C-alpha cells in the first residue's frame, strides 16, 4: 500500500514537471542549433561569403542538449518542486535538538509573540 502511494505521488510529480522539463530541453536544443548555425556561417564567411550571424553561442565545445544536462535539469526541477520552503509561503516547522539537554522541539516553538525568530547557523572545523 505504501509503495503504491509513493508511486502515485512520483507519477503526479512527473506529470507536473514534464512541461517545464520539455521547455528546458527545447531551449537547450535551440541553443545548440544556434551554435551549429553560427559555426556554419563563420565557415561560409571564411570561404569568402558574406553571411553574418549574431553571437548567440555560449560554448562551441560543450553541448547543452546532452543526456547529462537533461538529467541535471530534471533533478533540479524535481528538487525545487519537492522542497519544503517556498517563496511567500509559511516557514517549515522542522524538528531541532537543543545542545544543552538533547531535548527535541519544533523550530517555530522557539518564537516568542511577535518577535522575529533569528537562526544563526555556524560550524567549527
From TrEMBL:
<keyword id="KW-0560">Oxidoreductase</keyword>
<comment type="similarity">
    <text>Belongs to the iodothyronine deiodinase family.</text>
</comment>
<dbReference type="Pfam" id="PF00837">
    <property type="entry name" value="T4_deiodinase"/>
</dbReference>
<dbReference type="InterPro" id="IPR000643">
    <property type="entry name" value="Iodothyronine_deiodinase"/>
</dbReference>
<dbReference type="GO" id="GO:0042403">
    <property type="term" value="P:thyroid hormone metabolic process"/>
</dbReference>
<keyword id="KW-0893">Thyroid hormones biosynthesis</keyword>
<comment type="function">
    <text>Responsible for the deiodination of T4 (3,5,3',5'-tetraiodothyronine).</text>
</comment>
<keyword id="KW-0712">Selenocysteine</keyword>
<dbReference type="GO" id="GO:0004800">
    <property type="term" value="F:thyroxine 5'-deiodinase activity"/>
</dbReference>
<dbReference type="GO" id="GO:0042446">
    <property type="term" value="P:hormone biosynthetic process"/>
</dbReference>
<protein>
    <recommendedName>
        <fullName>Iodothyronine deiodinase</fullName>
    </recommendedName>
</protein>
Amino acid at each position: 500500500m505504501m509503495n503504491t502511494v509513493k508511486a502515485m505521488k512520483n507519477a503526479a510529480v512527473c506529470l507536473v514537471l514534464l512541461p517545464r522539463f520539455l521547455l528546458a530541453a527545447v531551449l537547450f536544443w535551440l541553443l545548440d542549433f544556434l551554435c551549429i548555425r553560427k559555426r556554419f556561417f563563420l565557415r561560409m564567411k571564411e570561404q569568402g561569403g558574406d553571411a553574418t550571424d549574431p553571437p548567440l553561442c555560449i560554448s562551441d565545445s560543450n553541448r547543452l542538449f546532452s543526456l547529462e544536462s537533461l538529467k541535471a535539469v530534471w533533478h533540479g526541477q524535481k528538487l525545487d518542486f519537492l522542497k519544503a520552503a517556498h517563496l511567500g509561503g509559511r516557514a517549515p516547522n522542522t524538528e531541532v535538538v537543543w545542545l544543552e539537554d538533547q531535548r527535541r522541539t519544533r523550530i517555530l516553538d522557539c518564537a516568542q509573540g511577535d518577535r522575529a525568530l533569528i537562526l544563526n547557523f555556524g560550524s567549527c572545523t
